[in-house]
């Protein structure tokens, strides 16, 4: 076996082990998260999902996505979501600055007019940066539920970058621990100083789908029929488009109930 094949095989084995650890140790926390999400969706609210940088990939997978339930609402701030620009507009320097600034997260939430009954899923490997903790603190201050998908193993070893002095796992109502180590990358190659093969994104995306599916099951158990996104690249394209258009209309109904004409606080 070549070195390249060996590294690939070891990487997949490591991701598989980590997924199994999550399955063995976080199933009750995922179920608890699903109950919170089902409460929001069944009550006509939204489950917002957010992450900066690579954490945003998992948030984006919540909706719209084949097999996903209507009621999840990703928040995407382009300036701290895109990672490929590096230089120029929305470059790495701006990203590094913005996601560590207190107040930015609360400004984002004001633009979405959060209301009673909503909940929030935050995807953050480190769980220490200001934007993430701004949002968690704002939801908690309003008496709303916060779900964290984070690495306690990483977060517990580094200080908070927010004035609250806490890490995300210390603020959230439910914590789904990825257990990914500080390095994140898992493969060490002889002669190379730094590891390769990050795992946190793959695990966070898998968790996002598990929350989505578990929320759907929770809704069904309550007698609430969830509105599911259907794959349009199939032999029932017309039917799928009709279903998905109904899903988008339902999302619009939930959004238009929000008072976007309300004054924006200046704090």
TrEMBL record:
Location of the SIS domain: 37-224
GO molecular function terms noted in the UniProt entry: carbohydrate derivative binding
InterPro entries: RpiR-like_SIS, SIS_dom, SIS_dom_sf, SIS_GmhA/DiaA_subfam
Record GO biological process: carbohydrate derivative metabolic process
PROSITE patterns xrefs: SIS
Gene3D superfamilies attached to this UniProt entry: Glucose-6-phosphate isomerase like protein, domain 1 (3.40.50.10490)
NCBIfam families: PRK02947.1
Official protein name in the record: Putative phosphosugar-binding protein
Species annotation: Nocardioides soli
């Amino acid at each position: 076996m070549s070195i390249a094949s060996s590294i690939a095989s070891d990487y997949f084995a490591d991701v598989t082990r980590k997924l199994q650890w999550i399955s063995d140790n976080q199933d009750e926390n995922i179920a608890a998260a699903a109950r919170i999400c089902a409460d929001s969706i069944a009550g006509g609210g939204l489950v917002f999902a957010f992450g900066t940088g690579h954490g945003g990939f998992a948030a984006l997978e919540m909706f719209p996505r084949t097999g996903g339930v209507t009621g999840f609402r990703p928040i995407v701030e382009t300036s701290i979501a895109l990672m490929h620009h590096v230089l120029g507009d929305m470059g790495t320097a701006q990203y590094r600055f913005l996601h560590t600034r207190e107040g930015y997260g609360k400004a984002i939430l004001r633009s979405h007019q959060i209301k009673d009954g909503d909940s929030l899923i935050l995807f953050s490997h480190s769980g220490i940066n200001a934007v993430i903790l701004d949002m968690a603190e704002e939801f908690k201050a309003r008496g709303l539920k916060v779900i964290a998908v984070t690495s306690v193993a990483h977060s517990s070893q580094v200080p908070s970058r927010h004035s609250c002095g806490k890490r995300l796992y210390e603020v959230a109502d439910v914590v789904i621990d990825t257990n990914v180590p500080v390095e994140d990358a898992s493969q060490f190659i002889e002669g190379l100083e730094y590891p390769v093969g990050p795992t946190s994104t793959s695990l966070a995306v898998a968790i996002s789908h598990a929350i989505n599916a578990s929320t759907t099951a929770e809704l069904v158990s309550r007698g609430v029929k969830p509105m599911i996104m259907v794959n349009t690249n199939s032999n029932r394209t017309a039917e799928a488009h009709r279903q998905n258009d109904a899903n988008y209309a339902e999302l619009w109904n939930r959004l238009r109930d929000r008072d976007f004409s309300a004054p924006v606080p200046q704090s």
